[in-house]
Amino acid sequence: MNILFLHGLESKLSPEKRVILEKYGNVIAPELDYKSNPNMIQHLYDAYQTQDINAIIGSSMGGFAGYHLANSLSICALLFNPALPYRNTIEQIVPVSIPINQSLYMRIVLGGQDTVIKAKDNMDFFAQNVAAKTDYAITIKSDLGHQIPVDVFEEETKAFFKALCY
Question: Residue 54 sits in a domain of what CATH number?
């Protein structure tokens, strides 16, 4: 299994989280510069559309890109506090040229204490953008902020892959 991990803005995959993901397969974790590339979704689509990617995991801005990429490539996704409802300071263009096939399953983890990307705003986004073919599992963790602690990452990753029967 190949897992594409998309980190957040000015972030990267920590060694501890990489070890967790490696329990489930080969981890592909490109370093992404969202600030200098407003066409990151198109870039990711071009880079991975012909590769055998089985799951996408993204956090924050990586969750935003992961959401659109998963829907385009019809790949299941685990998204932590995705920056879907707003990206005030960082321009990211959702290309109209890539296909929209819809992911079959998305697990969304939102932080009830997240002051960067408010859970309510993400819930509003999903209420307005429900995909007909996608099964959603949306969890709001009341004590979770924007950063995802290793134990929460591990718990949610395990639940995600269990739901996929891997």
Answer: 3.40.50.1820
